[in-house]
Backbone:
């Protein structure tokens, strides 16, 4: 079943007086439960595309269909995780995780039950009462993921969530992310500029061209999980993606 | 470190009082214009013993609290609307900047005509003299919120009043604190100034009585009290609040 469909998404940016075409007609179809990674040269508009799917920005042309219905605004069925997490520093970890539930008017006891499950899943239980400034970058990202999962969204939108992490923490989270996906069966759209990350995580990797961006190629990654960063079997795919990307990076 | 600072301060104030005593003993200025510290202390004890001092302090502080509360609530509301709705900023925003430049005592004639010689008039002067400082701090604070906080919150279903209470106000809190601090300082000046001119109870009234009776020690004594109340409120309430917020928000 098709969960998300992007139909000819065009987005312009005003740059002083002239108009820049960031997205030049992006078409993408995502089935329920797929893990799709979006890679592309920096500045190609892959994050903008993700924000359009989240409903935080509107396209100048084209439309996003979610379960066949056009997306007009942001909503809890499509939750975005930002690169720096965007956790609320005035709330404890648990209250951060419960934020969306509170907005939905769910009573305190019920919120605590739900959040406990995800705090456990992300190994955050003993940090439940910490404030975010007390956490490492990796921990913050775990909280951000827990906060998104608590909403039980149909689609998880991740905007380079591991870009600011050190290599060891990232490798650990790459494995955990696969487990989470297998456990929750969410549809995931994951923006990254890291080809290895994309092949480790994705069932599909969509390669963006340089501006005005379109999707140049979609590569399927059929390989057993959990995949590790050092998996030799992924190398040929990574080479293939890199050979698609290289000319685009040069153009930018 | 703290102890050393305190020791220095004690030495400084003891020396200051000693110099004051010496100067008053030389009789450079006549005693009815420049009292000795002993006379001022005597006056303080006298006004304290008949209760008029504490009644004056209580009256002024009560007016301060009510006026400042009105200023904070009104100022925050106005500031949030200015930051979030452009047309309000362009219209009312410019007026706020103008109103902010009016010293609070300049509102006194208007307050007397509108409210008569009542508590309401003094509270009006206090509130209006401090409200726009809170408004401007709130506006700046909300404008400077990390946009990802607002996007994440909207994405998780927060909107309208919920967004304001659970995200905009706490996210702007570091700015709000400085607005409250500034607001309180304006409010304290406003209360005393208004009481002087209204001549209707409070510390400002006692100060004016001192002038009318040519009682220079009372004038000195009440000014000292006004200063000490100021130091106490700043130290007890605002310093603590600021420290807590700064560490919680990870700004220290």
Residues:
């Amino acid at each position: 079943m098709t969960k998300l469909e992007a139909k000819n998404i065009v987005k312009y940016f005003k740059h002083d007086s002239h108009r820049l075409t960031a997205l030049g007609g992006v078409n993408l179809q995502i089935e329920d439960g797929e893990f799709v990674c979006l890679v592309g040269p920096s500045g190609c508009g892959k994050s903008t595309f993700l924000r359009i799917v989240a409903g935080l920005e509107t396209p100048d042309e084209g439309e996003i269909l979610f379960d066949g219905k056009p997306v007009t605004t942001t909503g809890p069925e499509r939750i975005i995780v930002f690169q720096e997490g965007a956790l609320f520093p005035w709330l404890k970890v648990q209250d951060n995780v419960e934020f969306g539930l509170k907005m939905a008017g769910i009573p305190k006891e019920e919120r605590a039950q739900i959040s406990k499950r995800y705090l456990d899943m992300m190994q955050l239980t003993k940090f439940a009462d910490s404030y975010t400034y007390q956490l490492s970058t990796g921990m913050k990202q775990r909280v951000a993921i827990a906060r998104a999962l608590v909403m039980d969204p149909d689609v998880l939108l991740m905007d380079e969530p591991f870009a600011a992490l050190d290599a060891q923490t990232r490798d650990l989270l790459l494995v955990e992310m696969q487990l989470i996906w297998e456990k929750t069966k969410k549809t995931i759209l994951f923006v990254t500029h890291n080809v290895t990350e994309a092949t480790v995580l994705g069932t599909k990797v969509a390669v963006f061209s340089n501006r005005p961006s379109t999707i140049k190629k979609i590569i399927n990654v059929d390989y057993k999980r959990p995949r590790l960063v050092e998996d030799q079997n992924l190398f040929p795919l990574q080479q293939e993606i890199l050979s698609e990307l290289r000319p685009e990076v040069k153009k930018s | 470190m703290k102890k050393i600072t305190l020791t220095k301060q004690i030495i400084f104030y003891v020396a200051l009082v000693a110099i004051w005593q010496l100067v008053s003993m030389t009789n450079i200025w006549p005693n009815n214009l420049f009292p000795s510290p002993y006379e001022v202390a005597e006056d303080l004890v006298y006004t304290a013993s008949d209760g008029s001092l504490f009644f004056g302090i209580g009256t002024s502080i009560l007016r301060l609290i009510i006026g400042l509360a009105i200023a904070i609530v009104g100022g925050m509301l106005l500031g949030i609307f200015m930051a979030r709705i452009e047309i309000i900023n362009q219209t009312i925003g410019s007026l706020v900047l103008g109103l902010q430049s009016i010293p609070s005592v300049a509102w006194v004639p208007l307050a007397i005509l509108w409210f008569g010689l009542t508590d309401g008039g003094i509270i009006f002067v206090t509130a209006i003299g401090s409200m726009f400082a809170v408004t401007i701090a709130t506006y700046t604070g909300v404008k400077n919120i990390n946009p990802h906080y607002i996007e994440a919150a909207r994405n998780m279903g927060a909107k309208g009043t919920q967004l304001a209470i659970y995200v905009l106000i706490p996210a702007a809190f570091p700015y709000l604190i400085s607005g409250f601090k500034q607001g309180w300082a304006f409010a304290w000046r406003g209360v005393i100034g208004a009481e002087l001119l209204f001549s209707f109870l409070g510390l400002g009234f006692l100060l004016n009585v001192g002038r009318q009776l040519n009682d220079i020690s009372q004038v000195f004594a009440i000014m000292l009290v006004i200063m000490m109340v100021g130091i106490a409120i700043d130290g007890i309430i605002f310093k603590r609040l600021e420290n807590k917020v700064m560490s919680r928000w990870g700004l220290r």
Q: What stands out?
A: Chain A has two domains: 2-77+153-251, 89-151. Chain A touches chain B through 26 residues (CB under 8 Å). Chain A has a mean pLDDT of 91. Residues 167-184 of chain A form the longest helix (18 residues).
